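task queued by scheduler; priority normal; single chain, no ligands, no partner chains; default sampling; output format set to structure tokens
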Amino acid sequence: MAVSMRDLDPAFQGAGQKAGIEIWRIENFRPVPVPKSSYGKFFTGDSYVILKTTALKSGALRHDIHYWLGKDTTQDEAGAAAVKTVELDAALGGRAVQYREVQGHETEKFLSYFKPCIIPHEGGVASGFKHVEEEEHKTRMFVCRGKHVVHVKEVPFARSSLNHDDIFILDTKSKIFQFNGSNSSIQERAKALEVVQYIKDTYHDGKCEIAAIEDGKLMADAETGEFWGFFGGFAPLPRKTASNEEKTVESHPTKLLSIDKGQAEPVEADSLTRELLDTNKCYILDCGFEVFVWMGRNTSLDERKSASGVAEELIHGSDRLKSHIIRVIEGFETVIFRSKFESWPQATNVAVTEDGRGKVAALLQRQGVNVKGLLKAAPVKEEPQPYIDCTGNLQVWRVNGHEKVLLPASDQSKFYSGDCYIFQYSYPGEDKEEYLIGTWFGKQSIEEERVSAASLASKMVESMKFLAAQACIHEGSEPIQFFSIFQSFIVFKGGLSDGYKNYIAEKEIPDGTYTEDGVALFRVQGSGPDNMQAIQVEAVASSLNSSYCYILHSGSTVFTWAGNLTSPDDHGLVERQLDLIKPNLQSKSQKEGSESEQFWELLGGKSEYPSQKISREPEGDPHLFSCTFSKGIVLLQVMEIYNFTQDDLMTEDIFILDCHSDIFIWVGQQVDTKNKLQALTIGEKFLEHDFLLENLSREAPIYIVMEGSEPPFFTRFFTWDSAKSIMHGNSFQRKLTIVKNGGTPIMDKPKRRTPVSYGGRSSVPEKSQRSRSMSFSPDRVRVRGKSPAFNALAATFENPNARNLSTPPPMVRKLYPKSVTPDSETKSAAIAALTATFEQPPSARETIIPRSVKVSPPAPKSTPEPNSKENSMSNRLESLTIQEDVKEGEAEDEEGLPIYPYERLKITSTDPVSEIDVTKRETYLSSEEFKEKFGMKKDAFYKLPKWKQNKLKMALQLF
């Protein structure tokens, strides 16, 4: 559709070029920009055009245009707003979704732009209305409805307005009351409190009292009595009767209408299919409460305006003024619109459109025209980040029938495609040890063992009181977090479990399980030493790919093959993987195009092979859904929450965060145990239904995240405040606490956990495994290392009578009553001694566990001998982090510290220093030697994040 610049209203010039909201008010049938300071302030006598521009991960901009009609606006102004919306869309390239919003019946998407609510003001610029001037505070009453966004409507200040089903806010001069109807939900009450906070800040300058009144609680307290006093005393409330305003549109058969010369004609068809829509026409899809206008790509601006007018007449004529009109352009239809059709093809021509757009932009640019905003921004290509501390401790089990078999450290990263595995990874979090328990399903694994693996993993999570995050991962769809945890990962063909062996025997399938002396071909991939994989593929030439390096072996004959599109970094990864697959054997290097005859003979001869890199599902723009389910999750219903924030996660509910490449199931603390155990099934059902019609892979990774234990790779999608997720009480109680305390979360006590190792086993690999990657490169900084807690605890394990003098006397209690290990009581006591410190109230903890690490003279303490059993004993407790106690306000004094040379302080020293704090070895270095070793001064070092400090200390053997 060609749009002349003379068709574009000057007020829309430059609109939609960057992410954000832009608002125009209709004045004398023309759009006038609203100043940003007035965004969210709407007048009942006016009509507005609102443009929401969103920057997508692809670099493109998405536009949603809404026109909002106040209850007292004139029909002419409403019509002008509708027409101007069509014009604005045409100016933006004709791809925006357009929504009609009626005061009091706005879409949830629209309300999400103005959280927590909009409260329209009386008045307007048209039809003789004047904006009402601010005057003396007037007592007003509002009704609030909605779990995720709140519809707020002013109601008469009278007892007859109250009912048992809704939530009401009474705004008086000195106090705001929230009346919670007895039939209202906890989530609705919590959301209404956000409106209370908004009223307090907007109309009272943040200075007034707040009171929550429970329906049915008579005169039990002064505030309840005060509330009912405004209504002349308490009296029973009448039953709620639905007013005309609240009556919903009755069920309405879906009808498709074709628009021709301003007239709507029904389209006769047995079923709705995409083929019914002609690109040269406009159509109306009437679904009752939702009326869609579909505009073909080849329609003119006048035809689109005409179709919009027909839709307006349709809802006016059938007395459905509260219906939503949603206008969509061909090629940019919403999910809800597409879902109304029985079949909708996946193919889209958007890419062609973007290509043409780029060519036009390039042509104009050569002619000196400013093309800002015409061409979409190039997507930023970044290496995906794991967002998880990769220095933690790993345990891996192979599933064998209904049992799990712990793998030795040397085999932890060697998986078989016919098997299923369970892993437990513990790592230091923000203020406590975090856990991730996951299952990995090989492509050739059998269904019985997959079910068994999922069940065993769920029991592990349940035994840890749901404090661990859980992951369900399929071979070939592993996320970056998984590869970063395992670092060097190998997948062999075949399987070792009894179930797999029985299955291939029954089916008479040849056993292709990897053997060291057989012929095997491995594709090597990854981004570096901390993220590299070797995947066994069919030993034939067609398995090769010019974008990868390969290892081919037959007994003691080893070849490495480098594709022409590989880099020196890729070649380095091959050498590292060789150390794991075929150590101590000389390999013959082959370059693509100059291979030896022997190489091709092992692969059974030459053949064609691809050169394009294997693409992984890219991470998409995140979408948050609330979910409800029934009949054992047979019926799963979801509702999208737009422009989501952390506050949308309600502790009573389960939410789904869909990032396309993987999904997260967030489970609130108040969800009952039975439903918590259904979280994985909910994730699988979500992938199956593909609610956004985005071609979700059924094997996409599923993470289950428990409230209060959210990992950083989940919280990165929010502006996260961890204090909120560890508050106590239900959503309403938490929000009330925050509102009454000026918006600051109040915690009863810090939530710290003692380390738990499922099954009483060590969650720490042997030293050989932790340091395995050091053998590749002495310059490598990050290795699996000991946590700072290790040495302090080791002394307690070696000598139960010795304790860290900087901590209070231990409160000994048995943490694992069912443990049967002989030394469990001693270990439990040692852990409890530290836990007693963690569980003190904030006032007592402030001087014991400071937020920032300060350099201070160490308290005298018992330290282990350098040749003590530090590698075996402490490995079980690497998951506690201890920080030196510092008195509040104490100056950092280096002068009083004894100074020792680096050679005596490092952990491998042959002449180690005794009587030092072994968790702070670096503090005993002189300023000169510290700067020489670390490349910075001490004060700069202590400003670094804790993980970075530990990383540097590891590299210098001071950790």
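post-processing summary
- The longest strand covers residues 519-528.
- The CA atoms of residues 258 and 295 lie 10 Å apart.
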